[in-house]
Amino acid sequence: MGAALLATLAACSSGPVRRVSEPAARLQQVTVNADGSWTALVRIENYSSIPMRFDRFSLALEAAGQEAGTLQASPGLDIGLESADVVETRLVPSAGAKLAAADALAGGRSLGYALRGEVFATPDESSKQREFEVEHRSTLSPAPGLPGVLR
């Protein structure tokens, strides 16, 4: 009986599994500003079982198949385990992407987009930053009552 008790105690002492999973990045909202620039809210999702510090990201953005530009930020943002947060970035999009967004807004249609790039994060209690490749495709739709806003 003593050996079984020791084995049980040894199993309990290891604690929960600390897992670092690939994060995700997606657009939560894009606002077309009067000067033609875009304000993009990038949602960073931490799927890890530990908190992570999201140091920076560089994401190539395509809108309706048109290269729009690169969303970059260095938020230094701590995101808890299996949680998410939003980072605001600005972008001066390409002419083709501007036209695609204007067409979607004017016609009340959705706008397909793709994000592709890198997110750099440091797992909690670690000094080693890791690079994660991310890719995401989805659509944004005009927000009712909010001119120039796609969600």
Automatic annotation (TrEMBL):
Bias (Basic and acidic residues): 125-138
Spans annotated as Disordered: 124-151
Top-level taxon in the UniProt lineage: Bacteria
Name used for this protein in its record: LEA type 2 family protein
Organism: Marilutibacter penaei
